[in-house]
Every structure is written in structure tokens, then in C-alpha cells.
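Homework help thread (please don't just give me the answer)

Our assignment gives two proteins as sequence + C-alpha cell strings and asks us to describe the second one. The first is just a warm-up. Here they are:
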Amino acid sequence: MRFNFNSSEPIYLQVAQQIQEAIFTKTYAEGEQIPSTTEISRDFHINPATVLKGMNLLVADGLIEKRRGIGMFVVEGAQSKIVEKRRELFYQDEVVKLISEAKKLQISQEKLVDLIKRGF
């Protein structure tokens, strides 16, 4: 994990994003325990409450679960939830923008598909 303490993005969001990325890349597999709040706060010199705030975002999103007295674990289906969320964001952020620009350039749907195939 790497945190940018000079970023305008809050550290708790960076914690959530870093753990989410590790689940996405299967660094933390479904059913596997993730590092504790204490471990992360100690290793990266972050306030434990800040780490917990980031983890609670992932609990709320249904990606990790708290097991009382044991720790935090990646839930089954977490990786696929992240994939679906990222696909939707990709569509909203990239595909819609691409189509809009193609229309401005008067690129037909067929030509755009050809360009995409060429890029692949």
C-alpha cells in the first residue's frame, strides 16, 4: 500500500481504494483476512480511526465483513462486485465520452467500431 499524505484526497478514502484495488487484483482473495486496522496504522503511521473509517466504507459496500474478535475478511463475490462497478464507471467515464467525441467528428458507428477493433 502507498499513501499520498500531500494529496487533497482524504487518507481514509485512500485506505479504502488501496484495499479495494487489492481485492480487485486478487491480492486479497475472497474469504481471506485482510490486514488489521492496527497493522495498517502501525505500518503506515496512520491514525487507527482513519484506517477504520476507510474499512467501514468497504463494509458498507459489501466488500469486506467484520468478524467479531477475529478481524476483517473479504466477502464472497467482492471481486465480481468491483468488476461490475468498474465496468459501469468505464462506460460512464470513457465510452459515453468516446461516443460524444466521435459524433462531433462525424465518425459513424461502423467506423468507430472499426477504430476500436484496430486498437484491440
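The one we have to describe:
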Amino acid sequence: MRCPNCQEQDTKVIDSRLLQDGDTVRRRRKCESCEHRFTTYEKTEQQLPILVKRDGRMETYSREKIKNGLFKASQKRPISATQIDDIIDELEGMMLQSGLKEFPTDRVGPYVISKLYELDHVAYVRFASFYWNFDTVDTFIKDLQNKTVIENQNRV
């Protein structure tokens, strides 16, 4: 591991701890050259399924893309970055547990929408307006009312 202070390659692990989530190891390191101490985190890489769009196109899963959408929907709302990360972590867990190699986006959107509905109704409406892609305000209001009822009945 390269030292962030002097860029030397020769560093030594002086302490390792398993974090509470059980999937991450925290390592304290010391540079043998400049004696700078720093922390690294090691996490197992999991292969998430490919997303299948409504029109049949396939797209690589992007945590950042979902995170950006959630941040936009929750701007100036009482939703923390930790809550957004939790939603994404739960989504990724659901995708991994499915065992599917190809996962439909029409299951991703409703899942995220239902989680936002529990946290903040304004963020829920913002995200839903992007996801459902409406032509007019009237259809947006009508569908929002219908889908809110459906979401409450069919919680993911």
C-alpha cells in the first residue's frame, strides 16, 4: 500500500480490526520511510447483477447514479447522507439475494420510491417524478395518487 504522505510503497500494517458490519476490515498502517500513520479499509467486492431497462437495454449497475438521484430528490430535505447510503445498501442486498444475473429496473425504482416514502414525502414525490416520466401535470397528480395507494398496499 502506497503511503499518502511520501508515496513510498513500503508500508507496514500495525493493527487490523473487523468492523461491525462484518464485511469490512480497518487497517492502521505505518510508512517505513517517513513513519506517517494512516488508515485503510478493505471490503469484499460483490458482483451486482446487470440492470435491464424498460426498453430491454442492459446497463451496468452504478451506485453513484442511484446516489445522485437520491441526493437530487432529497435536496434541502431532512434526509442524511447515511440514510441515503442505507437505502442503497438495502437495495444492493436485495439485488444480491435475488440471485439474478440480470435485474429489471422496474424493481429498482419502486423499491427506492417506497423507501423514500417512509422517510420524506417531498423527496418521494421528486424521485417519483423522475422515475415515472410524466407528460403533463394532470397525469402526474393522477398517477401519483394511484401509485401512492399501490405503494402503501404493496410495500417491497
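TA reply:
I won't write it for you, but here's a hint about the kind of observation we're looking for: Helices lie at 63-73, 81-98, 105-119, 121-132, 137-153.
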